[in-house]
Amino acid sequence: MNKEPVAKPAAKDEKAIPLNEIVISLYEAQDKIYPRSVSGFFTKWRWVMIWLTQLFFYGVPWLEWGHRQALLFDLEAKRFYIFNLVLYPQDLIYLTAILIISALSLFLFTAIAGRLWCGYTCPQTVYTEIFLWIERKIEGDRASRMKFDAATMSTKKFVRKGTKHFVWIVFALITGFTFVGYFSPIRELASSILSFSLGPWEIFWICFYGFATYGNAGFMREQVCKYMCPYARFQSAMFDDDTLIVTYDEERGEPRGGRSRKAEVSANAKPLGACIDCSLCVQVCPTGIDIRKGLQYECIGCGACADVCDTVMDKMGYERGLVKYSTQHAITNKWTHKQMVQRILRPRVLIYASILGLIIIALMTSLWLRTHFRVDVVRDRGVMARLTDDGKLENVYRLQIMNGTESVQHYKLSVSGVKDLEIESESVTEDEESEHESHSKTIMVKPAESRWLIVDLKIPDGTLETGSHKIEFQIEAVESKEIVTEKSVFLVPR
């Protein structure tokens, strides 16, 4: 009987290890990707979107609306300012609707045009492209960067690397400062930095988001898109054969092979396709994939490979479009551009668009009909009902009136449902006018603030039967004439 050869144990208590055992690493080493610079139609559009998104991101926090920041998510004051719209924690439904609209818009856009969001407007892609531009300006093109990284450390390399990282860190900290400026008034934040009076939490969050930008765009780059982003994993659920994606025309391009610029495609004994196997499409890809291998989840749809391939086709004198934006059906059936566009309005797209449209209409209608103030009525649980010294039965309530506008508002309070009901409330300020009638009061609330008001309701004892009697608080905004009603009960004890 043949025995498997074993190595001599190092000690008596150690187990024998087979000589033919192979150790396999569960993690494959990844080579650093050096994307080559490229120019073309899609690259120009990418830079247009980079400029637009960054002008919006860095510019909007500095815009003013009235006497405040136009877009501010003030967590400390529990108010969200979106230009002329002021939202409170109670308005979370609107923020939820905005997030749902954003998600459905992404689904709709993906079903139509694939991962164009990833390739043109995703923050990870945008900042990676900006950091790569800085790297090219300091260290040179792709070949120079590869040679530079492979060289041993020298004074020149240290200075260039240090300069690059210094610029990266400054840009990342500016990005972190701007991001925090959406949650803390950016002008006050800037003044605190200049006066060296920045609080510990502001310092922490600016450094945190700055470090995240520096790490993700400077080092992790395509790793975020390939392994960390969940969208790369579930995008296939929204793709079909009519989704516009970056595709390689295999029938036209294969078999690939090198040839001189003057050679004809069919000049060889074995005819070659239009692909000259220059691998430039791989070199320009920010995620390092080969588009000629078909659709891959790592593809972010940036179109860099289409731009560089068109450049090669021009030099070779071949027709453009070997790598292009198309659909699987269009490639297979050789559809024209018009036929491909006609397939946009298919059931999946119509369903996404219909649901999205309904939610947008519902949100706009709700915002249009939304009153600019809120009222909460809470019974004083400590005092259900009591007799006063003047022989009247009293119920105590606490009202919270929230002014959703950015100007001083006056609200007229009245109660209905029980006859001869009198209203008494806490003393009013000099700026308020109190009605002389006992059945109504006028309350003043400052801009974008809320006010708690203790309200006593009284009736002569014996007027009502024992039990619970329905009443209704009516609060009318004097300036806008809007009315809010809240139901409650008036208790008469036995």
Would you kindly provide a brief summary of this structure?
By secondary structure, the protein is α+β, with helices and mostly antiparallel strands. It contains 16 helices and 16 strands. Among the domains are: about 40-85 and about 120-235, no CATH class; about 375-490, Immunoglobulin-like (Sandwich).
Q: Please provide the count of β strands.
A: 16
Structural class: alpha+beta
Helical proportion?
Answer: 25-40%
**What fraction of residues sit in β-strands?**
15-25%
Largest sheet: 5 strands, antiparallel
Distance between the termini: 101 Å
| Number of helical regions | 16
Shape: elongated
Q: Indicate the mean pLDDT.
A: 86
**Which residue ranges are poorly predicted, with pLDDT under 50 across at least 5 consecutive positions?**
1-8, 265-269, 427-437
Whole-angstrom Rg: 34 Å
Task: Give the helix/strand layout.
Blueprint: H1 41-59, E1 64-65, E2 68-69, E3 71-74, E4 79-82, E5 85-87, H2 92-113, H3 116-120, H4 123-139, H5 142-150, H6 155-180, H7 186-194, H8 200-220, H9 222-228, H10 231-234, E6 245-248, H11 250-253, H12 280-283, H13 304-316, E7 323-326, H14 328-333, H15 337-342, H16 347-369, E8 373-379, E9 386-387, E10 392-403, E11 409-416, E12 422-425, E13 440-445, E14 450-460, E15 467-477, E16 483-492
Antiparallel strand pairs: 1-2, 3-4, 4-5, 6-7, 8-10, 9-10, 10-14, 11-13, 11-15, 12-14, 15-16
Helix pairs in contact: 2-16, 4-6, 4-8, 6-8
Provide keyphrases for this structure:
494 residues, alpha+beta, 5-stranded antiparallel β-sheet, 4-stranded antiparallel β-sheet, 19% strand, disordered N terminus
